[in-house]
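Support case: S-adenosyl-L-homocysteine complex. Customer-provided input:
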Amino acid sequence: MNQFANSGDKLAQQLKSLGISNQKVLDAISSVPRHLFVDQILAHKAYENTALPIGQGQTISQPYIVGKMTQMLVEHGVTTDVLEIGTGSGYQAAILGRVFDKVSSVERIRQLQFNAKRKLQQLDIYNVQMKHGDGWQGWHSKAPFQAIIVTAAPTSIPEQLKLQLADGGLMVLPVGGETQTLVTVVRQGDDFIEKHWESVKFVPLVSGDTL
Ligand code: SAH
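Agent response - structure generated as follows:
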């Protein structure tokens, strides 16, 4: 008997009680086996609503915030061409792959990027393209994006990412240092409309070299 049978369903139920209401997002949470994205010794904690270490000083985000950010994109009307910055374990990318038609994801640590790619292949998720690179630069050749989701916190909104948004497109990202706020940016022509939401806690979006 599979130790994790129904675990995804229970996690989705929990997120529903916390206000994640979109069925497509809840179905993705139910169906993606989060225990595959964490170290085996932490697998028993994989379906708790907490962030967990994934090595290299990085973390897999809390499921609630994964659901929340994904739902914000759905509610904005996004259907395809989503860019994620900070692939990490690949869990958020897998969720995005189940919800949207075409997803791209950038990670600065080669080992994490490599492992994440393998995990998505294992799950037969083929609509997510990944690359090793610096997320501050986005993914120029694939722009423009209907949405950009940043899963590490920059101290200010990266200019290149704003420019890679399609007209009407939405970016969701944590901004700050010690204290961070979830921010949305909607592009309207040459205007970028910012809104500030709840406080959040992400690892920093590192500047400079890739590893
Ligand atoms: N979305 C991930 C969360 C990973 S934590 C998941 O579902 O597991 C944030 C990730 O952002 C880390 O893997 C970190 O290495 C990466 N990161 C930090 N700075 C970056 C940068 N400048 N460019 C690309 N990735 C970056």
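Residues 63-76 form the longest helix (14 residues).

Case will auto-close in a few days if no follow-up is received.
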